[in-house]
Amino acid sequence: KNTKVGLETLDLIGYDRDELLGQSALTLGIWAKPAQRSAMIAELRQGNRVAHTPIVLTTKTRESRNVLLSAQIADNDGGDYVLAYLIDITEQQRQAHALAQREAQLRAVFDAAMSVYLDRFLTVPAARLPEPGGTGGDPEGLLSELPMLLDRQQQVNETGELVPRYLAAGGQPE
Q: How far apart are CA 92 and CA 21, in angstroms?
């Protein structure tokens, strides 16, 4: 039975001190999973401490709170008491879950963007290698066409055809 309860615990579970004193947390339904309480009591009875054990408590308004429980047996005036300390981690877990969801959304957006990029810009039907379109011609005149073709979008084929014509006309690769 509860004999002393700290203010932080009262704030956490939403009960008044008078509602808890003399009552068992088990009978009040504070332990959302009574098996967790049984495991803690068994550890304490073996003379062990319980440290930072995740448990779920239920508040007076029936809200679940995730907490880390640390506890040990303490002797006070000839009687054994459970001295327990709770750390509420509910909000941290909610934030971690929200962050994980946000990261998953961003990963999905990134994957979709990469898929579009790869499909649109890199998956191009294979083009055959250009053949020189005749012999002769003025290499300097062909070379002067190159900047104009490079400045226009989607002129890859024309630029690719110009290069072998330049080389076939005797132009020097530099």
A: 30
In DSSP terms, 83 is beta-bridged to: 72
Amino acid at 20: L
61: which residues sit within 8 A by CB, 6+ positions away? Answer: 14
Give pLDDT tens digits along the chain (174 positions): 555 566 677 678 787 777 777 777 777 888 899 899 889 989 988 989 999 999 998 888 899 999 998 988 887 777 777 788 889 999 999 999 999 999 999 888 888 888 777 766 665 555 566 566 655 577 788 778 777 777 776 666 777 777 777 777 777 776
Task: Count Cβ atoms within 10 A of the Cβ of residue 25 and give its class: 0-12 exposed, 13-18 middle, 19 or more buried.
Answer: buried
Widest CA span of the chain, in angstroms?
A: 112
Q: Two tokens at 36?
A: 């967790």
Alpha carbon distance 5, 83 (integer Å): 10
Sign of the torsion formed by the C-alpha atoms of 38, 69, 88 and 9: positive
Chain Cα centroid distance, residue 12: 28
